[in-house]
Amino acid sequence: MPLPNRFLERASAPTVPSIRGASVRTAVVTGASSGIGRATAAALAAHDYRVIGTSRNSRSVVNPIPGVEYRDLDLASPESVRSFAHGLSEIDVDILVNNAGESQCGPLEELPIDALERLFRLNVLGHIELTQLILPAMRARRQGRVVFVGSMLASFPLAFRSSYVASKAALKGFATAARLELAPFGIHLTTVEPGSIDTGLSDRRTKYISDDSPYREAFTTTVGALDAKESQGISAERVARTIVHSATTPQPKPLYAVGSRAPLVFTARRLLPRRVIESVMAHSYGLG
Is residue 252 a contact partner of residue 5, using CB atoms and an 8 Å limit? Predict the structure, then answer.
């Protein structure tokens, strides 16, 4: 029986209190056209938030969620980030959910630098710049929530996922380090780390490996195991419930993890040597 972990989400579905007394509460969710972002936007709308969901092309969103206002945002473009933030200048944003991102894999030796730059611009820098632009208004009102959607791979790194792991670890680093800066102004920063999720992300993951790569056999084994785990993973809706809870509970934890037996594996991570954890991770993905 796993030990309790005060940093992890409980299995039961949380309640969703209001964080302010105003009649209209506003949440911004990036990457709201599919997967976790779409499920989170729907959950917030169901709890009477005015939801502004982003997509690189808002007009192409399939089956828009009732109650969600879609706006264009390309996090890889600083100009787009600033334009989007400017469009929020007359809106009190209560919750910002930094969710959008790209999934990438490949041997470290073969990852193209331009692909790494794009990944970090999209997964990290775009979200940080958007957060920077929204924080002053939250600080002036002395209230606000910012949720960074990371990945359990940031806590349990996996071979051939180094770039993605690094981008999600960077988000967690920003959130964790800045929490004490913003807490005196009534602003809470939280990271949510999902485990394996069944959202079809495997089909959209960018892969970088040459035909004659010396890593091809191990890469194929690892990515095949990754795809299989994701096909049996938890739903985006379950992750969304955790995100909404983290964004609305009166005293949020620094980190919430959901899926992939999170309470058990985080307890093991605290109790066991790092080498043992790495060996178990490698074995579970057909390596080692």
Answer: no
The angle, 0 to 180 degrees and rounded to 10, between the axes of the packed helices 162-182 and 126-141 is 10
CATH number at residue 65: 3.40.50.720
Could you give the 3-state DSSP secondary structure of residue 47?
Answer: coil
On whether residue 173 sits in a domain, the answer given is yes
Both structure tokens of 154: 């940031």
Does residue 148 fall inside a structural domain?
A: yes
CA distances from 214 to 62, 109, 217, 278 (A): 41, 10, 8, 22
**pLDDT by 10-residue block (mean), the chain, 288 residues:** 37 40 83 96 97 96 94 97 97 97 96 97 98 98 98 94 97 97 98 88 84 96 92 92 97 92 88 90 86
List residues bridging with 70 in a β-sheet.
53
The single-letter code of the amino acid at 83 is S
CA dihedral 55, 165, 103, 107 (to 10 degrees): 150
Whole-number Å distance between alpha carbons of 217 and 77: 36
Q: Which domain does 235 fall in, by range?
A: 25-284
Which residues are catalytically annotated?
Answer: 164, 168
Q: Work out how many domains the chain is built from and give that number.
A: 1
Q: Is residue 18 part of a domain?
A: no
